[in-house]
Design brief:
A 6-stranded mixed beta sheet has the order 4-3-2-1-5-6. Strands 7-8 form a two-stranded parallel sheet. Helix content is 52%, strand content 8%. α7 (170-182) crosses α9 (225-240). It folds into 2 domains: 10-197 and 253-298, 3-Layer(aba) Sandwich (Rossmann fold), CATH 3.40.50.620; 303-420, no CATH class. The relative contact order is 0.13. β7 (422-424), α21 (425-435) and β8 (454-456) form a beta-alpha-beta unit. By secondary structure, the chain is an alpha/beta fold.
Length: 459
């Protein structure tokens, strides 16, 4: 029975390969042969290809889908010529979280490539800082996003709450944190379709982040991708943790392991980017990311728009603004409301806490607190003196403390650290550097002078 099953699966895989080749252009088929040769050389020869482990980060764009199709064709081509082929691990990335439509698009591609039931393929996805098996139904497990949630809240309240900064370069620290967890299961090679210009930009950004945080060690040398991911993961943990423990978290010892090599495909990118029939076969519903900014493929395209919409609506004066609906309230079944609260649901925050984040009312000794109350919580204006007392650590009614915690989503200790606003110099430098660039690592417009923060410690 096993022999019959293996023969049937072999026939199916051969059909999938023939279909793939039939939808490729002549240039792509030539590129496929080059890719196969490089994989065999990287593995050390055909005799080692059966134990060779390849990792690819799957973004939500056509470039990523086409690259995956090329890798699948290479895997099946080698399997037809030799008894074994390489192991392929696909890690779906969509920060801060993948929506249902995005996951369904990935599933269509995986089904078209017949990857779901192939033991040589491992399909996974990132949820918060955990790597879980791929599923088109995203799970509701806010504890997986706990560190990312606190990092975003502390960053927004302390430094910059603009949507482009909240969902900007700091997301790459979240990705590195999750990738570091994924690499606990070792891989031999990561294949990327990122052009060399963007790779250099990313490495320059990483080096600067390490330098500003005062981080020393092998991570700064970028000896391998695993070391780089571990170093950036430490930055993410430090930026999202208690401010008093910033230096201790950066001083953690790095783990040593087998170096993870990176195979770039710069010379094959023109073939991957050209218009083709391959997208129809794969059922791709993704847009093709601009050539200069492939990092956009790893970010949920709706998240930034949702945060912008929420910010615009929350800043309109109370008298002329429709009531904002909390994430856990019933009603409002239209698609806009569903999208609008998705970011908060992912991080385990309701809409009140998101609006509070966008106002940033607690920084600089609560300079913006009265304006926030006038705009969003007029009934709490009478308690303004008690709010300041609570944030200063002075005695005040428990109801006031509970209101602060429920409205912000942070603990009272975190709120007092934000209110005091004094950061270690290394923390201030790192967070300010993250606030300067968007998710494409492009410079953002300067913040208003009033958003500057103080630091403690010597320059």
């Amino acid at each position: 029975m096993t022999a019959i099953h293996d023969q049937a699966m072999h026939y199916i895989y051969q059909q999938v390969l023939e279909r793939l080749l039939g939808h490729m252009s002549q240039a792509q088929r030539a590129s496929l042969q080059l890719l196969i040769q490089r994989l065999l050389v990287a593995a050390g020869g055909p005799e080692y290809i059966g134990t060779f482990r390849v990792l690819v980060l799957q973004g939500s764009d056509r470039r990523s889908t086409r690259l995956l199709a090329m890798l699948r064709a290479a895997q099946l081509s080698i399997a037809l010529r030799a008894p074994v082929t390489f192991q392929l691990r696909v890690l779906v990335v969509s920060l801060p979280a993948a929506g249902g439509a995005t996951l369904e698009g990935h599933e269509r591609s995986f089904n078209a490539l017949f990857m779901q039931d192939d033991p040589r393929v491992q399909l996974q996805m990132i949820e918060g800082r955990e790597v879980v098996p791929f599923s088109c139904r995203p799970s509701v497990a806010p504890e997986r996003w706990l560190l990312a949630r606190e990092a975003m809240l502390m960053f927004g309240h302390l430094v910059d709450a603009r949507p482009e900064a909240l969902l900007g370069s700091r997301l790459h620290l979240e990705l590195a944190d999750a990738l570091g967890a994924a690499l606990q299961a070792p891989a031999d090679l990561l294949i990327t379709g990122m052009p060399i210009r963007q790779r250099r930009r990313y490495l320059a950004w990483a080096r600067r982040s390490f330098r500003l945080a005062g981080l020393r060690g092998p991570h700064v040398l970028h000896q391998c991708l695993a070391a780089l991911a571990h170093g950036l993961s430490r930055l993410h943990g430090a930026a999202g943790g208690p401010l008093s423990a910033f230096a201790e978290q950066l001083a953690s010892v790095a783990e040593e392991g087998t170096p993870l090599r990176v195979m770039a495909m710069d010379d094959l990118l023109p073939q991957l980017l050209e218009a083709q029939q391959l997208d129809l076969m794969l059922g791709s519903c993704f847009e093709c990311a601009p050539d200069a900014w492939p990092l956009a493929a790893y970010v949920d395209p709706l998240a930034l728009a949702q945060l912008h919409e929420l910010r615009v609506r929350s800043l309109v004066p109370q008298a002329g603004r429709p009531a904002l609906r909390l994430a856990d309230q019933a009603g409002g079944n239209n698609q806009r409301d569903v999208h609008q609260v998705q970011l908060g649901k992912t991080y385990g925050m309701n809409q009140t806490q998101l609006v509070c984040l966008l106002f940033g009312p607690f920084a600089r000794q609560g300079k913006n607190l009265e304006r926030f109350l006038q705009s969003r919580h007029a009934d709490m204006l009478v308690a303004l003196p008690y709010l300041h007392r609570a944030l200063q650590g002075k005695p005040c009614p428990d109801a006031v403390k509970d209101w602060l915690v429920n409205t912000s989503g942070l603990t009272l200790g975190q709120l007092r650290a934000i209110y005091d606003g004094r950061l270690p110099l290394a923390a201030w430098r790192l967070l300010s550097n993250l606030a300067r660039r968007d998710v494409h690592l492009r410079l953002l417009p300067r913040r208003p002078p009033g958003r500057r923060r103080a630091f403690m410690g010597r320059p």
